[in-house]
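quick one, 81 residues, struct below
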Amino acid sequence: MKTITNFKSRVNALLLMIFTMATSVLTFAQETTTTGSGAVTTEQKTTTTTEWYTDPMYLIGGAVLLIIIIALIARGGRSRA
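---
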């Protein structure tokens, strides 16, 4: 019985390895486009990124959140008589 369980686990590991390799091949495949002359051309993409702290919406949102937190702390410190 232990032999069958060991065999099943090894087959499962082998199938998992094959699936991983096939997925890897599909993931790293590169798209190319061919023109009528048979030449292969590739497209280059450029991305521009901005830092989060340069966006004014984050600064405004952070300031509003800070004001709300300060107001809640100040209000919670009062004694209720």
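Strands lie at 33-34, 40-41.
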